[in-house]
Each structure stands twice: as C-alpha cells, then as structure tokens.
Specification:
With 310 residues, the protein is of the alpha+beta class. It has 13 helices and eleven strands. Helix 4 runs antiparallel to helix 5, helix 7 packs across helix 8 and helix 10 packs across helix 13.
C-alpha cells in the first residue's frame, strides 16, 4: 500500500462491508418511511426516473436518474414520488408482500422511479472522524461527474450489474458499493471550500497531512505534539489548535484512538499475540495496553478477540 494513502488505511481498519437491501420499482403516489437503523451508511441509486428524499433536519431533495444519495449514521428517511406526501412505514410495505426475490414493487399507475438500495456497515465501536464528520446527506449528482470519469464509471457499472442478475453479481455489487462509498467520501473536498473542516479537509491540508501520515505509517512510535508539529512545519501551539479544529479531536487523542482501532482490527482478523499487538500500538506492556483498551471500548482485548470470533 502507498504509505501516504491514509484513507485506505482508515477504511481497511474500520472493516467496511456492504450489502444490498433490494431494487425498487416505485409508482405514482408512493411515500415510504425507512426507520433509523444502527449506524449503517445507506445508499439509494436512481437507475431510472426520479424521486424525492427527506432526511430529518434536511431540506427535501429531488433525486434524478444517475444520482446517488448517501445517508450516514443510520438516520431515518423518507422516499417519495413528490414532496410532502404522508409516508407509510417500510415495515407495513413489506408486510403487504411488496418485496419478492429482491425486488420491491410499490404504488400504482405510471412508474416514477427505479432504485438500487443498499448499505455499508463497519466496526461501530470506532468513532473515526472520517465517519463522524460526514454530512447528514451526501449527494453525488450524475451531472457533476464530468471531471471524474472513475466515479461515473463505477456508478454505471453498479447499475448495469444490478440489472444483469448473473452468477457472482451479489459479490460484485457489494464490492462496488464499497468502492462508490469511498469515492464519494474522497470527493468531499470539492464541497469543503466554504467550511474547510473534517478529516478529508485535513488530508488535503499540506501541513496536517504530514502528521496524519506519520501516525498511520508508524503508530508504534512515541509521538508527541512537538514531534508531530515539527513534521508539519508548525509551532506546537499552532499545530495543536489547527489539528483539533480541523479533525475534530486533539492530536494525542487521535493517536490513541487510532492505535486502539488498529488493535481491534488485529485482534479480530489476525493471529498476532497480545504482546505483538501491544508493541505495534506503542504500548510498553500488555497490562498497560489491556487497561487502555478496556477504558475505551468497555471490554478487555482478550474478551473482545473471543467475542469477535464466536
């Protein structure tokens, strides 16, 4: 892996994984309310037609063919054929038998929209700033991707593969959803010009990115604010202030949480012994590592390893 690719390191450690809900064929007069659901990042790709999406606290938005809506943090939402239509809970729609073999049909009359709906889930115990700084609704408009053929191509392939329904399609679709999500997060820089804050803004900050790369490349090093500030070419005070304001957490807090996030990943997915994991996370002993891990996650590393594999 490119040592400067911090974003890939983050998503690998979070163990992002995607799944499909269903394809939907929605006709005149539909309005379906999706309830809050854990911390999942939910997707709606408009394959044909158009619809409206309402997320709590946000202005209702129209989605057109080729648009992708991403709703983070498991927020509730309403999909409808027009604004201000009273919704029916998704549970009632499903109870009425609208879902059959992965296709949700609802409404009557002319078809208004065909959607592909899915979600990403991840290690929910990790509150990484890349997720906590996401907006309540992230829209990727097909008409805005002229300079980003890679994202446009991924969205087209996602839609075509969903319609193909061939052997292997489910595996391809779940991986494409992950790709599209990461692409969508990566392109958030274009939306940060007025409010240059959040983890993506920090990655594009010439000075802060050097400190983040150091933390991610060598989490075992006993980094200090002074050492990270020197890498960033800033004074200690200015670095701490700018890092905290942009990333959302102080440098040492980010370092500690990142080390323990890496530890969760290694505990769940590797055969590394506890001493090696503690060392890789910059802890001088297993007891000190275990104590800090339990303080942050509420369970000791040994118990977490056993539960993650049961």
């Amino acid at each position: 892996m490119d040592n400067s690719d911090v974003l890939s390191d983050v998503f690998s450690t979070l163990r992002i994984h995607s799944e499909l809900y269903f394809q939907a064929e929605l006709r005149d007069g539909f309005s379906i309310e999706l309830p809050p659901e854990k911390r999942r990042v939910r997707f709606h790709l408009v394959q044909q037609g158009h619809c409206w999406l309402r997320v709590p606290g946000q202005v209702e938005r129209e989605l057109n063919e080729g648009d992708l809506a991403i709703v983070p943090d498991g927020a509730g939402q309403i999909l409808s054929s027009g604004p201000q239509i009273d919704p029916i809970p998704l549970a009632e729609v499903l109870a009425a038998g609208a879902l059959d073999q992965g296709l949700l049909r609802y409404g009557s009359g002319e078809r208004r929209a065909r959607l592909l709906c899915g979600f990403c889930h991840f290690d929910e115990a990790i509150d990484h700033p890349v997720l906590t700084s996401l907006p309540a609704l992230l829209l990727v408009r097909a008409g805005d991707l002229g300079a980003e053929p890679w994202t446009a191509a991924a969205l087209r392939l996602l839609s075509m593969e969903a319609d193909l329904k061939a052997q292997g399609s489910k595996g391809i679709l779940t991986r494409l959803l992950e790709i599209v999500f990461i692409q969508s997060v990566r392109r958030m820089k274009a939306e940060l010009e007025d409010e240059p804050a959040g983890f993506i803004a920090a990655l594009h900050d010439v000075k802060l990115s050097k400190a983040l790369q150091a933390i991610h490349n060598e989490p075992q090093v006993k980094w200090t604010i002074g050492g990270l500030a020197k890498l960033a070419g800033m004074s200690r005070a200015r670095f701490a202030e700018r890092f905290t304001a942009t990333v959302g957490v102080p440098p040492v807090g980010y370092l500690t949480h990142w080390r323990l996030s890496k530890a969760r990943n290694w505990l769940a997915s590797s055969e590394l012994d506890m001493a090696e994991i503690a060392s890789r996370c910059g802890y001088a002993s297993v007891p000190s590592f275990s104590k800090r891990f339990k303080e942050v996650f509420g369970v000791g590393p040994g118990a977490y390893r056993r539960s993650s594999r049961s």
